[in-house]
Every structure is written in structure tokens, then in C-alpha cells.
Amino acid sequence: MTRVVVTVDTERCVGSATCLVVAPGSFALDEHDHSGPTAQAAADLDGVREAEQLCPTGAIRVVLGG
Questions:
Q1: Section 7-27 average pLDDT
Q2: Other CB atoms closer than 10 Å to residue 52's CB: what's the count?
């Protein structure tokens, strides 16, 4: 099974919430309106990859590992 690591650079995140729309349940906003991955993110590879591509600031990173 391929390991999936999803990260969000909170310094780059502007809280557009595009990721919440594209991959519902895989991201959540914190009290500062910065996005972060949830436990479900690794199970939604298609959704988080689309969120990575559509993030307006490029804050989302999806890394596949062994």
C-alpha cells in the first residue's frame, strides 16, 4: 500500500476553502481560516490531488511514499 502524506503550508494558505469544496472531509479550516488536512485526507487521493492543483497559493502538497 502506498503511503500518502498531505500537508498545507499555513504561511501560504489564504483560506479560500477551495480544498474544502473539492475534497470535502479531507481538509478543515482552523480558527485563523488556514486549511489543514484531516485524517480522511490520505484516503481521498483523487480529491486531495485535485485540491493541490486548484489551490490558488500552492499551499497544498501531496507526497506519495513507500
A1: 96
A2: 19
pLDDT, mean over the chain: 94
Q: Is the pLDDT of residue 1 over 90?
A: no
CA-based torsion, 46, 51, 54, 60: positive or negative: negative
8-32: b or e for each residue (b if 16 or more CB lie within 10 Å)?
A: beeeebeeeebbbebbeebbeeeee
Query: How many other CB atoms are there within 10 angstroms of residue 59's CB atom?
Result: 21
Q: What fold, for 3-65? A: Alpha-Beta Plaits (3.30.70)
Dihedral pair phi/psi, residue 16, rounded to 5°: -65, -25
36 CB neighbour count, 10 Å cutoff: 15
Q: Please give the single-letter amino acid code of residue 8.
A: V
On whether the pTM is more than 0.70, the answer is yes
